[in-house]
Write a structure and sequence with these properties.
Blueprint (H helix, E strand, L loop, with lengths): L1 E4 L15 E4 H4 L6 H10 L4 E4 L4 H4 L8 E5 L6 H4 L3 H10 L5 E4 L1
Parallel strand pairs: 1-2, 1-3, 3-4, 4-5
């Protein structure tokens, strides 16, 4: 699965998502893009899913029109120490994710 990690999450999360083709917004050169533009660019570039900490994205965007999925990471913060305990749940969410859906993880 081709995964894009939004700039709202710590980039070090990428190292812990083994088995997936994972990129960060920073690596792609898309830092600063607004959510709508970011999601459209990710879809055009063949990403299957965007991981984000942005809890409001589901209310700001019409996710049903995009050909990719969005996983909102429900963590105490977007810092790596709060994200690492969620890695098993994130990996499970990615492995069971249906195309073009919104999901909260864990």
């Amino acid at each position: 699965m081709k995964v894009l990690i939004d700039e709202s999450l710590d980039v070090r999360l990428r190292q812990h998502l083994a088995g997936h083709d994972t990129y960060t917004v920073q690596f792609m050169g898309w830092k600063g893009l607004k959510n709508g533009d970011l999601l459209a660019r990710a879809a055009t570039d063949g990403f299957d899913v965007v991981l984000t900490y942005d809890q409001n994205i589901q209310h700001q965007q019409n996710l049903a029109t995009l050909p990719l999925s969005v996983v909102i990471v429900d963590a105490a913060s977007n810092q790596i120490d709060d994200l690492l305990p969620l890695v098993p749940a994130l990996l499970h969410a990615l492995s069971t994710l249906k195309p073009c859906t919104l999901r909260h993880a864990p």
